Amino acid sequence: MCGGVPRGSAWPWTMTRELIARETLKKLSNDPHLGTSDGIWTQERRFDLSRVLLRRGRQSLDPLPADEVRTRAVELFESLGGNRKSSVTFNLGGSYSGAELEDLILSIDTNRPSVIASPLPQPDLNPPPPSSWIWEWYSQQRIMEFEVAVYSRACKAYDEALDNAFARLGWSMSSSILAPFGVVMRLNLNDDDSERRLRDRWGSISLSLTRVPMALLPELAPTDPEPIWSTDRRVVISRSEVSLETAYFSWVLERIGSWLQMQERELIGGLSWSTTIANQMSKVRPACDIAAKWLYDDLKKTGLGEGTFPQLR
Question: Which end of the chain has the least Cβ crowding within 10 Å, N or C?
């Protein structure tokens, strides 16, 4: 009957699922409050706000004078009438609420830092090459240091979101079966020359990786040549020839599969490894960008996401 309520107990849940799926991408792209009040999501958001307040590039990792940031934040917050619910959009990009401005001011007043700094490694090629691509400003060694740092923070950001914004859905998130997890990565090289880079047509470096249960990370971590670990020992990277990638990651996935089988657990969608561009330094909030994509992949596998992928504002 036209306009009638469909029969069956699944109908209300189907409606709810579709409503959630339509909003998931928007939430991950626009909501800056997915973690704790002082966690990774907040840290990256506040650093980005500090940059735009001083009209610095949104990809810059230079330390920012805290007193100048505070002065500008106070001026802007007062121009909004001290209204936490108001918002402001900057020419450099990004829209921020009055609440975020006031919270930034309170954070500076409480912690009294001399500078507001990013925890991520800065570019080390000085002067940088005449290139418009920011990853060209990093040496190969510094790119590896950057990637382990940013993926370590991404793991923490994922954990934060599962414990807070997605607490009620955490049990259904497929990646949670690996949690707590770390990441093993290989920087792809063309030959034995450690300074040669396998670049695509944009001049970037390719990176292969997969997430690994922390219980298995010491066993599965690459041992040669000269791996670099994150400070929390949650992420490790080493150089590798492309021809060796398939064999290494096939072994890693087989070992994870055996471990899950012993735990009588199964990952929705199966295990996989991926190759991506090592360009996280081009992202405004790099760790949250990675974590948001992990979360979105999990939600899509359970029918709670639709669209392409999050694009953090």
Answer: N
Question: Which of 8-22, 49-63, 228-242, 272-286 is predicted with the least confidence, judged by mean pLDDT?
Answer: 8-22
Closest residue by Cα to residue 282 from 123, 156, 98, 83: 123
> 240: domain range?
134-301
| Domain end residue (candidates: 85, 116, 147) | 116
Phi, psi (deg, nearest 5) at residue 240? -160, 145
Predicted local confidence at residue 183, as pLDDT: 98
Cα 198–200–202 angle (5° rounding)?
A: 125
SS3 240: strand
**Is beta strand 64-65 parallel, antiparallel or unpaired with respect to 115-116?**
antiparallel
- Inside any domain, residue 88: yes
CA angle 10, 166, 148 (to 5 degrees): 130
The answer as to whether 13 is a domain residue is no
pTM above the 0.85 mark?
yes
